[in-house]
């Protein structure tokens, strides 16, 4: 086990692409929004590559049909599209989404070992809390920090520093687990150790290029790493 992991007392998990495969519902909402605006739908692969910076940026990328937002987008159009997206997403929040394998088992094992657990996401509170409730995570998670909880979100370190303060620990005792460069960059800025997951949504990039402290292919490997227990726990 890396020495930086031996002092871990709390773990912050990203939500989308880490605990929850949410891309199908986001894809549905994006396409319903585009169709309502008289535009052509986009593929699941495109939407998956646009996830990670909050719904405002996702909507702008969809309108731009590109990862790079078109600076010529009219503010009125963006506002209209955002309203439509929120409406469609709220109605399909967990229609197609699902937890990744071993999520519940890993969280239960970590919690039983005395770890404090948090979700740190760039998703808005109005969508995050219903998902946490719907997928049965409320009893396992001690703290949920959303994209609108603080003025700044990942890759800013503020959400992680907020977690550390809430748990009354040092940021070096808080482990960030995520699938995106935003997660790893936030951890580095907070001086927290990090684990990058190879599945999920990282704009089509290899998470190893972000230089997390450790790269894992499955969440089940986390309990084996931190608790020295079989990965099937």
UniProtKB/TrEMBL annotation:
Record field: catalytic activity: 2-phosphoglycolate + H2O = glycolate + phosphate
Active-site positions on this chain: 14 (nucleophile)
Keywords: Carbohydrate metabolism, Hydrolase, Magnesium, Metal-binding
Entry-linked SUPFAM superfamilies: HAD-like (SSF56784)
Keyword Magnesium among record annotations: yes
A GO BP annotation: carbohydrate metabolic process
GO cellular component, one term: cytosol
UniProt binding sites for Mg(2+): 14, 16, 179
Pathway per the UniProt entry: Organic acid metabolism; glycolate biosynthesis; glycolate from 2-phosphoglycolate: step 1/1
Alphabetized InterPro entries for the sequence: HAD-like_hydrolase_sf (IPR050155), HAD-like_sf (IPR036412), HAD-SF_hydro_IA (IPR006439), HAD_sf (IPR023214), PGP-like_dom2 (IPR023198), PGPase_prok (IPR037512)
Transmembrane segments: none
Cofactor(s) the protein needs: Mg(2+)
GO molecular function: metal ion binding; phosphoglycolate phosphatase activity
Pfam families xrefs: Hydrolase
Similarity remark: Belongs to the HAD-like hydrolase superfamily. CbbY/CbbZ/Gph/YieH family.
Protein name: Phosphoglycolate phosphatase
